[in-house]
Amino acid sequence: MTATPSPTGHPGYSQTLDRVPESASVARSLVRTALVAWHQEHLVEDALNVITEPVSNAVDHARRPSIRVVVARPSDGWIRLGVVDRPRDIPEMRLDSNEDQIRGRGLVLVEALSDLWGTDLHRWGKTVWAELKSVPTE
Q1: Which of 52, 94, 118, 130 could form a disulfide linkage to 114, CB 3.0–4.6 angstroms apart?
Q2: Count of domains for the chain
Q3: What is the pLDDT of residues 89-114, one digit of tens each?
Q4: Residue 93 forms part of a structural domain
Q5: Quick check: is 45 in a domain?
Q6: pTM (2 decimals)?
């Protein structure tokens, strides 16, 4: 786990993970560690559900053997969860009600549990992120 400075003086957390299903568990652990360190325990349950979806998508669709998970505080009132991978394909929220499909509706959960979410495109790939409002700390 690497801590890096962020604009609010809180460290950010990031980790490069193998592109395997078990990485979702490691990502959840990273998110929990950051939120506890920032005294944002009230966000843990929602944040763990939120981070699982972009990690799962990256495991299924990325082209490289690794992905990167980032947990940051872009400002004192926000927590940002992000997953960085190489493909530039923008994930789409599935709103269909095809009950035969078990997978593919996770972004609906991200939409419901986060305050904001989106995708930042980079020359080399993308970051899928979600933000949750946090309680300011001193």
Answers
A1: 130
A2: 1
A3: 888 776 665 555 555 568 999 999 99
A4: yes
A5: yes
A6: 0.85
